[in-house]
Write a structure and sequence with these properties.
Alpha-D-Glucose-1,6-Bisphosphate, Chain A, domain 4; 7 strands; 34% strand
Length: 148
């Protein structure tokens, strides 16, 4: 079982536009489908109501780790948060790296730390998030091209 998920997508939008889509909490909420209660601030918890169909009963929570303008945005979260019976003792680290390209921005998403999850939940969390990030990368691509 791998310890990390990695997704890359080249977006036809400048780094500044992608950065705004990632770090402005209202824009993040639009493409990620979560109604966040407030802005992203390093070291702070941010939460909001999940708007993704079928998951509306859930609350999204993350602790912002780093915000290095137009380069790196990261947070930690609990990948099994939707299972109320699960202890929330282990978090994974989500990182968005931005690099300028000739057509726009290379966005690289990594989520690491799956090896710290309990063995009986690791595989499920990895598979679920791997599929989820595939969808979310398409969501942000659509967002930055439809709302320049």
């Amino acid at each position: 079982m791998p310890d990390r998920i990695e997704k890359k997508i080249e977006l036809k939008a400048p780094v500044s536009r992608v950065w705004r889509a990632l770090t402005d909490y209202k824009e993040f909420g639009e493409w990620f489908r979560v109604a966040l209660e407030g802005p992203f601030t390093p070291g702070q918890l941010v939460r909001g109501k999940v708007l993704y169909p079928g998951y509306e009963r859930l609350t999204w929570e993350a602790i912002v780790q780093k915000m290095e303008p137009e380069r790196l945005f990261s947070f930690t979260w609990h990948p099994m948060k939707d299972d109320n019976s699960v202890d929330m003792e282990n978090e994974t680290l989500v990182e968005f790296h931005l690099e300028p390209t000739s057509v726009g921005t290379l966005l690289t998403l990594t989520e690491s730390g799956f090896d710290k999850l309990p063995a009986d939940r690791c595989d499920f969390a990895f598979r679920k998030n791997d599929g989820g990030w595939t969808v979310q990368m398409q969501n942000i691509a659509h967002h930055v091209t439809q709302k320049p």
